[in-house]
Amino acid sequence: MTVLAKATVLVVLLVEVTIGAEALQDIPEFLHICQVQQPQYETCVTNSINDLKPYLKVGVPEYHIPSLEPLKLKTISASPSNSLTMHANDINVYGASNFEINKIKMDLTNIVFNVDVALSNIAIDGKYEVDGKILLLPIHGSGPLSGNFSECIGACKIKGERFFDENGVEKIRIIDFRMKISVGKGSIKLDNLFDGEQVLGDVVNSAINNNFQLFMREFSPLLEMALSDAFQDIADKIIQQFSFSQLFPGA
């Protein structure tokens, strides 16, 4: 082999090593990894996630962890019934980092995780468009949206899959994230209903808040869809920086 050929092979090997090194992040000190075979593994995972909350609140850009205060949601649209169409955008959620994990169940064979979380209080603001009927009342308008929700319970079912990336490293990705939410108490305000007609707007807002649980049956699917999409995107970006064996040693 000529000197030039040897040099070429060496360069190629160095490039491959560099690419492989850049494909994985080192596990950061703030992310406590639990050994799969250790006793009370799920309790360890719960504690590890709870320890992450201060970092989730402010974000860690170098590990693709965004700040959850506020959590910014994408545009969402839904027609929960034949008589109602709702759109919301520029939504900010405050208080998402103050979650408490009530229960976690992990099935690493099928890569299915079930997580129950509690949120004492969350607030939202954003913009809305609505047209149709809510609680048998006609409703039409667009403008600012704000709300406060307390005693919130979230049930998350997360489905993942193992795969090999372009460098042959086995990783995990999230292929489905479903969240169901129940709200104990709350209030919501839709400004500029009926093109700013104050009396009609006050009547509808009052009816919504006097029948809050009925309204949430219409509004919850929008919030669940937006939160599920946001958390799937965040979680997927974080976990794909690491190999499966880094995240689940002993599995």
TrEMBL record:
Record-linked SMART domains: JHBP
GO terms under cellular component: extracellular space
UniProt entry keywords in alphabetical sequence: Biological rhythms, Signal
GO BP, sorted A to Z: circadian rhythm
UniProt keyword annotation of Nuclease present: no
Signal peptide start and end residues: 1-23
UniProt record similarity statement: Belongs to the TO family.
PANTHER family in UniProt: CIRCADIAN CLOCK-CONTROLLED PROTEIN-LIKE PROTEIN, PROTEIN TAKEOUT-LIKE PROTEIN
Protein name according to UniProt: Circadian clock-controlled protein
Organism of provenance: Camponotus floridanus
